[in-house]
Each structure stands twice: as C-alpha cells, then as structure tokens.
Amino acid sequence: xxxxxxxxxxxxxxxxxxxxxxxxxxxxxxxxxxxxxxxxxxxxxxxxxxxxxxxxxxxxxxxxxxxxxxxxxxxxxxxxxxxxxxxxxxxxxxxxxxxxxxxxxxxxxxxxxxxxxxxxxxxxxxxxxxxxxxxxxxxxxxxxxxxxxxxxxxxxxxxxxxxxxxxxxxxxxxxxxxxxxxxxxxxxxxxxxxxxxxxxxxxxxxxxxxxxxxxxxxxxxxxxxxxxxxxxxxxxxxxxxxxxxxxxxxxxxxxxxxxxxxxxxxxxxxxxxxxxxxxxxxxxxxxxxxxxxxxxxxxxxxxxxxxxxxxxxxxxxxxxxxxxxxxxxxxxxxxxxxxxxxxxxxxxxxxxxxxxxxxxxxxxxxxxxxxxxxxxxxxxxxxxxxxx
Length: 388
What we know:
Layout: H1 2-36, E1 42-44, H2 46-56, H3 62-72, H4 78-93, E2 100-111, H5 121-128, E3 130-135, H6 140-157, E4 176-186, E5 188-190, E6 194-201, E7 207-219, E8 221-225, E9 230-236, E10 243-250, H7 256-262, H8 268-276, E11 281-288, E12 290-297, H9 299-304, E13 331-339, E14 343-345, E15 354-359, E16 364-370, E17 375-382
Parallel strand pairs: 2-3, 4-13, 5-14, 11-15
Antiparallel strand pairs: 1-17, 2-4, 6-7, 7-11, 8-9, 9-10, 10-16, 12-13, 16-17
C-alpha cells in the first residue's frame, strides 16, 4: 500500500513538473506581448490564462485547435492534458495558507441556447475549476450585469474585490466570452525595515519619477546572469518555502525588452539553476512599494502568439458545432497584487558571507513562482513609478 501511494505521489509530481514547464514556456512570451500593448507597465497571470485556454482547447477542432496547442505548448493527448491540468491546479490553488493566498478563477459566459458538444465538457470544467455562466446573450445589457455580479459575489466569498471585468462589447449571442480573475496576497518571510521616497530612473539613468523604496538586509539567492545582462534575486514568501518572487533587474543601458529577447534562448529554468548554485549571500535589497490592478483584453497578445481563428467567426472551428456558428469575441483578465513591506520577521544575517546590493531603481521584471513545481503564477513589468 505504501509503495502504491509512493508511486501515485511520484506520478503526480512528474506530471506537475511536465505541465509547469509547458506553462512556463508560454509565460515569458505571453508577458512580453501583453506588456508591449500596455507601454511596458503590466501584470498578468500566465498560469490563469494558460489553464483556461488549455481547457477551451478541448472544445475546438481543426486549425483552431492546432493554433491553441502550439501557443500553449500542450500535448496532443486529451487524457494526459486533463489530468496534468488537474494535478497542477491542485498544487497551486490548493495550497493557500495564512501567509499566502492565490485566488484564480476562470469563467465562460455563453448563451443559454448554445450546447457544448464535447463529451463530458462540463464535468471537465468542474475538475479544472471553470465556472460556466449560461445567460440570454441577446439581452446583452442584462447579461453583462449578471455575469459581472456572479464574479463579484464569488470574489467576496474569498475577500477579493472583483471589478466589472466584462464590457458590453465583449459578448455576442454566438460567442463564448472568457474571463480570468486573479488576486495574489502575501506576506514576505523577512520584513522590510524601512521605507522612504527615492528617485526612480529609466534604463539610461534618467530620472522618471519617485517611489516609496523599501529596504531590507537578507540572506537570499542572488546572481549576475551575463546572458541576460541582468541581476536576478529570489525573495521568499511565508515560512513554508512554497512561494517566492523572482526579480530580474537589467544592467544599466539594458532595456526590459532586451531581456525578453534574450529569454527566448536563455530559459527560466536556466535562471533557477544558476540561483540554486549560488553560495550563501547577504543581499542589501531596495524594492519599490506598489500596488497594481489590471484589466486586459488579451485578443491582440494572443494573436501575436499565433492564435487567430478562435476570435474570428468565419474561421473558428468547434467540436460538434456547425462551422462559423461559434467563436470567442473576447478573452479578458483581471490581476491585482500589492507589494509592501510586511513580513514575518527580520532576517538574522550571518557574518562572513559575501554581500551584494540589489537596488531596483530602474524598470525590472518580476515573477511570482510556486516553488514545488517552479510554476509562474503571476508576472509583470514595473516601469511607471508612483509614490504608493
């Protein structure tokens, strides 16, 4: 019995690792194309969108399905997909504690007369956590109000304030509108000891504003990564080591977009391998205090990743549905997150370790990662300073 349980646990772990790698391949590209539509300052949940579209893929056929499969780096096996998604979701969403909370919900808004013919789709949707909202989409004004209210009410159950995510022009009687809502709440393992207003600069060291800069001295993994022309730091959340923030600060005169280009060949996994090999290090950290709330329509970023037919009624193909009768008018996402000084304790820094400085006073990238699977839960670019 113990052997059987061990084999099951090992299989689950391997499946999670496999699907985490697929999601991470999608993540960097997705953040790059989204931030290019938002003047560089952005926050997205790659995991939320990837998880949602991985389920929608089951409904599609022909070229529509092929485009999604390529963009999402998914396996062709449906059975492998559904159980891989389930295992990864259980690890990420089933691990909330008093120190860290990940709220990620997917919604499908569809006309009440449309029937999704893929076998057992509604059951699969429940397994992954997709909420199907069936309404009369010919009454668009009412449908938008009701759909947003359902999302708001579910958020209230988890103390998450959900704004009006879906707009009236984002639904259609022949459409499936997809919405993904995310909130990441955390407490650092180590508290920041001071906060004061400091200057913030662009990649060329020109001042572009001011921020409330937080400071701490901490034992952490930090490295200069030459292929990225960046300094990288990992800061842990909570006490269980389950979540951490990965910060990537480009070197002077290196732009965020330059780092994105280099990450097409130097992967996220390679970054983590380098950090894991670093000797014990004392890091003097300066990080802006900020809050970010985003609402994005994701059609254009996904177009740039090769997903076209899904959004066009004349090209979209869905399993068991007459061609050109069903499409996705919009995919929308809401992300909210606060980065502040609150931590559990002050780190007891040991003497004799090497010491480095990580001062984030220029635009930088950040990734919230689930450590047991190395999954990117949330990612963003900080480039517009505010005194928060």
